[in-house]
């Protein structure tokens, strides 16, 4: 059974991480394209129409491949996690059904209108279609995260007939953990798209290719990206406080905090020693900072990992390092976005900054993946926090079957990932079509 649990978790992780290569760029790039087309309709400037069409081509490539990887995710709740679906499907299933039948269909329909509607429908109708794509795409993400939010902080249910059944849909809809997660995920996705536009624009500016076009893209994206980097930090802080209130074991793992402490310090340099339940290195501590970050009170008590039974503790190493690297990347994003905003009006921004923005393109993807690692591994050993253990949720299937499907997923998803990167690189490097 342990092999089945491990393999099923690996398979779901592979599916989620590959799917989330496509999702954030879809969410963020649709917003930027909608802004470009809004300025085209408002000003009549044909340059903004060219921008919407160029970045729209990259958006459609990414969206198409994202659909393929997203469909298989929901099937795994029946194939790999059937006991989970039996126990909480009354709540979880309703949220996924709304996402698929309302938000996703709306997004797909109006994306078709937008993609094929150039010169076929009026300007305002065409503009409305891309804004509906933006709204529907981000609503789709909301329903998915409300479903995940129930796993993180189960609310609005009663236990009857041997399962969790929906008792208060409004409570599920207003779950504070889910809304904090949604805000942080949305800012991360939009920021990724901003850096994608900046990185591609910087690549062309360094090569003096389509300079007027990509200078315009750069000047538009830089201040938006800076605002989003600040918003990402703010929503991250708010979600951290949600974690402290609702999942104190996850907070302790994120900080490798072992002893329950009031006025808990935050250490800049930490090296966890999980075997001995301590930190082998703790250096440059700021008294009360961890308490203040977690609870808004420098004197607050922060519960340590030793206060939780070993069987209820998350894996400290991956959660701690995932969180630290994610925060470090957030600082890098703030610096790059600020530098790009300061230099955006120059004919040719600093070459070093341009190169850094090109190399930065994959980093927001890595940061988002680490964020999901912290969120999901930090909840373990619970599939639904304090309600259902992961070990009780897995399907009773042979380990060999799961291993076979896991290998298949890795092969197919790797091919799709390579195809996505190749197509995006090909058309991004090609640049816009000539007038």
Automatic annotation (TrEMBL):
Gene Ontology CC annotations of this record: cytochrome complex; plasma membrane
Organism: Candidatus Desulfovibrio intestinavium
Annotated GO MF terms: electron transfer activity; heme binding; metal ion binding; oxidoreductase activity, acting on diphenols and related substances as donors, oxygen as acceptor
Top-level taxon in the UniProt lineage: Bacteria
Pfam families named among the record's database cross-references: Cyt_bd_oxida_I
Subcellular location as annotated: Cell inner membrane
Similarity comment: Belongs to the cytochrome ubiquinol oxidase subunit 1 family.
Keywords: Cell inner membrane, Cell membrane, Electron transport, Heme, Iron, Membrane, Metal-binding, Transmembrane, Transmembrane helix, Transport
Transmembrane segments: 12-33, 54-71, 91-113, 125-146, 187-206, 218-236, 319-340, 352-375, 402-424
Main location: membrane
A biological process term (GO) from this entry: aerobic electron transport chain
Stored InterPro entries: Cyt-d_ubiquinol_oxidase_su_1
Protein name in UniProt: Cytochrome ubiquinol oxidase subunit I
Mode of membrane association: Multi-pass membrane protein
């Amino acid at each position: 059974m342990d092999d089945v649990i491990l393999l099923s978790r690996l398979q779901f992780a592979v599916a989620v991480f590959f799917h989330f290569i496509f999702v954030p760029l879809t969410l963020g790039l649709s917003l930027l394209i909608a802004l470009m087309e809004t300025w085209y309709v408002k000003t009549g400037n044909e340059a903004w129409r060219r921008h919407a069409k160029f970045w729209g081509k990259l958006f459609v490539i990414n969206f198409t491949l994202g659909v393929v990887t997203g469909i298989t995710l929901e099937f795994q709740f029946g194939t790999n996690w059937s006991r989970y679906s039996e126990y909480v499907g009354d709540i979880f299933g309703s949220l996924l059904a709304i996402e698929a039948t309302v938000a996703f269909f709306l997004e797909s329909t109006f994306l078709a209108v937008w993609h094929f509607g150039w010169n076929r429908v009026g300007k305002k109708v065409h503009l409305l279609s891309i804004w509906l794509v933006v709204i529907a795409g981000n609503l789709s993400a909301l329903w998915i995260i409300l479903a995940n939010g129930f796993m993180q902080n189960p609310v609005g249910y009663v236990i009857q007939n041997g399962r969790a059944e929906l008792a208060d849909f409004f409570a599920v809809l207003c779950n504070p953990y889910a809304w904090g997660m949604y805000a942080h995920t949305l800012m991360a996705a939009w920021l990724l798209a901003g850096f994608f536009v900046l990185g591609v624009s910087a690549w062309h500016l360094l090569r003096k290719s389509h300079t007027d076009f990509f200078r315009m893209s750069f000047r538009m994206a830089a201040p938006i990206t800076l605002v989003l980097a600040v918003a990402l930090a703010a929503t991250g802080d708010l979600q951290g406080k949600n974690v402290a209130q609702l999942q104190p074991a996850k907070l302790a793992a994120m900080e490798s905090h072992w002893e329950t402490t009031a006025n808990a310090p935050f250490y800049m340099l930490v090296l966890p020693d999980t075997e001995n339940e301590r930190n082998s290195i703790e250096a440059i501590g700021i008294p009360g900072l961890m308490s203040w970050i977690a609870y808004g009170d420098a004197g607050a008590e922060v519960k340590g990992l030793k206060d939780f039974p070993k069987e209820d503790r998350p894996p400290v190493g991956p959660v701690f390092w995932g969180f630290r690297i994610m925060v470090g990347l957030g600082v890098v994003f703030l610096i790059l976005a600020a530098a790009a905003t300061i230099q955006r009006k120059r004919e040719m921004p600093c070459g070093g900054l341009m190169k850094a923005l090109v190399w930065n393109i994959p980093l927001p993807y890595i940061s988002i993946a680490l964020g999901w690692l912290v969120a999901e591994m930090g909840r373990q050993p619970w599939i639904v926090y304090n309600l259902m253990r992961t070990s009780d949720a897995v399907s009773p299937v042979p380990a060999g079957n799961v291993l076979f499907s896991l290998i298949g997923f890795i092969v197919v998803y790797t091919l799709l990932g390579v195809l996505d990167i190749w197509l995006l690189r090909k058309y991004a490097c090609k640049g816009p079509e000539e007038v």
